[in-house]
Design goal:
This protein is of the alpha+beta class and about 450 residues long. The chain folds into 3 domains: about 210 residues, ATPase, nucleotide binding domain (Nucleotidyltransferase, domain 5); about 70 residues, Actin, Chain A, domain 4 (Alpha-Beta Complex), CATH 3.90.640; about 90 residues, Tumour Suppressor Smad4. It is built from 11 helices and 30 strands. It has a 6-stranded mixed sheet with strand order 3-2-1-9-10-18, sandwiched between helices. The chain has a 6-stranded mixed sheet with strand order 17-16-11-12-13-19. A 6-stranded antiparallel sheet has the order 21-20-30-29-26-27.
């Protein structure tokens, strides 16, 4: 059975199948009339088609109406669903199931909505794993930090080892990310070109798009080639400028102090091993800045760290068929063997259900959810006599139903009370609800 891994980072969603890289798709959407562009195509047209561009739908995953939308694009969840559909279309011929790697700062509501969107897009999700956990797989240091950057935020995760590698905390520490930095670096480069050759790449949409296309890759390779000139071929003329680390550092002037402060707060003066996402490669002066943290050692991870970590533990990540595992811990491998021990991941099958999914919308059970009926669009809440009731008691979740309500649990009639867990399917009124756990 071939397994696809989708590493959800909106600066570039990395997709692989059985450890082989398949594609990268950034979280860009451009609406050009009735045509919706997504991923790389959208990113490569964002400056050419500036009428409507959205880069925040993975950052602000919700169903709040957009101020400017279209008939088929009502909210960010619609864009995320369309993006997932495009990704799944690209790999569905080679993958039979999917593991999602997600940022640790996603809350319960976001995770519930994400799983609903994945279901709506047709993704056969078998497991969800924390990105920091997968990236750190194989590390045995007692205290680990994982620093990652997205389009519009920077996240810091704290992992601890006590026989298991556990993600203990994850949070967003900076409210801007690569989108802002790419813009600042593009303006610095454009300013230098104007000074040296009087050519302004921001004057024409085509040259502006070309500039923005080149900036991410040029920055990322600066660790290997820090003195390489920036070259932009426009028409028959190649424009070339040299930029110093000090010039490029201006884009990060307000970022690095925030990183240092957040790491200091998280470490509390204790020795820490800091893992840097490959998305931070080439950042001018970053490693020198982090060296100011006396108790913190730094390791730069490669672009395949998450993929390799997830692939290493793939047999342990999968839940039972039809059930989704949410992985927040992995075993620390023995230093005397290259084979991982059996994972004791926190599986959804062993957790009480916390939400019900209808389409792409998750509704919390906590502590009681009383239903009068279900339509294709929404749950109908009961104000008096409920036909179906889900409730939590003593860290477990139960379902009850009226005798003649026609409610089934996994295709078996329900009266109740019956214990339910994540992955169970409740059906009535011709609709299906999927029970999930986001704890």
């Amino acid at each position: 059975m071939a397994t696809g891994l989708i590493e959800l980072n909106d600066s570039g969603i990395n997709v692989s199948v059985d450890g082989k890289n398949m594609l990268q798709s950034p979280g860009y959407a451009v609406l050009d009339g009735k045509r919706l562009l997504l991923g790389t195509e959208a990113m490569n047209n964002a400056r050419l088609l500036p009428r409507w561009t959205n880069t925040r739908f993975w950052q602000q995953l919700d169903t709040n109406p957009l101020q400017v939308g279209a008939a088929n694009v009502r909210h960010h969840a619609d864009l995320a669903c369309a993006h997932f559909e495009q990704i799944w279309e690209a790999i569905r011929g080679t993958a039979d199931e999917v593991v999602l790697s997600i940022p640790g700062d996603y809350g319960r509501a976001e995770l519930g909505l994400l799983l609903g969107i994945a279901q709506e897009a047709g993704l056969p999700v078998r497991a969800v794993v924390d990105t920091a956990l997968a990236a750190a797989a194989g590390h045995a240091e007692p205290n680990l930090l994982y620093l990652d950057i997205h389009l519009h935020r920077v996240t810091l995760s704290h992992l601890q080892t006590d026989g298991q590698l556990r993600r203990s905390q994850a949070r967003s520490i900076v409210d801007n990310g690569l989108y802002t930095l790419w813009d600042r670096w593009a303006n610095i480069i454009a300013g230098q070109m104007i000074q040296t050759s009087r050519f302004d790449p921001l004057h024409q949409a085509a040259s502006e798009q070309q500039l923005y296309d080149l900036v991410p890759g040029w920055i990322a390779q600066r660790d290997q080639r820090p003195t390489q000139a920036f070259n932009l071929q426009y028409g028959v003329v190649q424009h070339s400028v040299n930029l110093s680390t000090e010039q490029l550092l201006g884009a990060c002037a307000n970022l690095y102090p925030q990183l240092l402060q957040a790491i200091k707060v998280e470490s509390r003066g204790n020795p820490m091993h800091l893992l840097l996402s490959h998305r931070l490669q080439g950042f001018p002066g970053l490693l020198d800045t982090l060296a100011l943290l006396g108790q913190v050692t730094t390791e730069q991870l490669g672009p395949n760290a998450v993929r390799q970590g997830a692939q290493q533990y793939l047999p342990q990540l999968r839940g039972n068929p039809g059930q989704v595992s949410y992985i927040t811990s992995l075993p620390v491998p023995s230093r005397t063997t290259s084979r991982p021990a059996t994972a004791t991941a926190s599986r959804a099958v062993s957790r009480p259900a916390s939400h019900v999914l209808l389409g792409s919308h998750a509704t919390a059970i906590n502590p009681v959810l009383k239903l009068a009926g279900i339509s294709a669009e929404a749950l109908q809440m009961a104000t008096e006599q409920a036909r179906c009731t889900l409730y939590q008691r003593a860290n477990q979740t139960f379902i009850e139903a009226a005798f003649d309500a026609g409610v089934t649990l996994n295709k078996q009639p329900v009266t109740g009370p019956v214990l339910v867990t994540a992955g169970d399917i409740v059906q009535f009124d011709g609709q299906s609800l999927t029970l999930i756990s986001t704890s």
